[in-house]
Design goal:
heterodimer, A: Immunoglobulin-like, seven-stranded mixed β-sheet, four-stranded antiparallel β-sheet, B: mainly beta, Immunoglobulin-like, six-stranded mixed β-sheet, about 0% helix, about 60% strand
């Protein structure tokens, strides 16, 4: 098991609420990622970071935002949740800051349901 | 899909049989990785094969890569019920520096 943690594991909230999904890793990895995955479907990259104070948008447009103030912490925030945000959100990290695409280590995921 | 294809989408076999999953892609790659996902969980890395490699083994797993056909296969030998999961290939693109995941193959191994 990788040392990467996500909280909460499950979240049911009402429309319009602000939420933050937490992701932490203890491996000292510089690269971190957020993916969105609907049931039975592929993963879509929504945000990534190459290190502290570095954040980039991924391939899938998302209304969420991220921050990277500490190496180990990469939270994702939705300012106003909507039912269309219902999905599973997976956080991952990898070791190298640049260059080739190496192994990614995944957290257990957060299942979000917006009513 | 611009991300490529995995087939079959679903596979059901008996314990002890071999399972083969295929992955095709469209752009050049640095490496290709296979991941496993148990229901409702995160992904676990299984094996990475670089673009200059043709075959790689890890325990009961065998991965092949044919860059001329832009395809890879994952073979699980002597399958067990515990192998039941979804399996994803992920391409490391030489253009974008990111991993691109396929839609996965759902494997069910019946005891």
């Amino acid at each position: 098991e990788a040392d990467i943690y996500q909280t909460p594991r499950y979240l049911v909230i009402g429309t319009g609420k602000k939420i933050t999904l937490e992701c932490s890793q203890t491996m000292g990895h510089d690269k971190m990622y957020w993916y969105q995955q609907d049931p039975g479907m592929e993963l879509h990259l929504i945000h990534y970071s190459y290190g502290v104070n570095s954040t980039e948008k991924g391939d899938l447009s998302s209304e969420s935002t991220v921050s990277r103030i500490r190496t180990e912490h990469f939270p994702l925030t939705l300012e106003s949740a909507r039912p269309s945000h219902t999905s599973q959100y997976l956080c991952a990290s990898s070791e190298y800051p640049t260059g080739t695409q190496e192994t990614q280590y995944f957290g257990p995921g957060t299942r979000l349901l917006v009513l | 899909s611009q991300q490529g294809e995995e087939d079959p989408q679903a596979l059901s076999i008996q314990e002890g049989e071999n399972a083969t999953m295929n992955c095709s892609y469209k752009t050049s790659i640095n490496n290709l990785q296979w991941y496993r996902q148990n229901s409702g969980r995160g992904l676990v890395h299984l094996i990475l094969i670089r673009s200059n490699e043709r075959e790689k083994h890890s325990g009961r797993l065998r991965v092949t890569l044919d860059t001329s056909k832009k395809s890879s296969s994952l073979l699980i030998t002597a399958s067990r019920a515990a192998d039941t999961a979804s399996y994803f290939c992920a391409r490391g693109s030489s253009n974008t520096g990111k991993l691109i995941f396929g839609q996965g193959t759902t494997l069910q191994v019946k005891p």
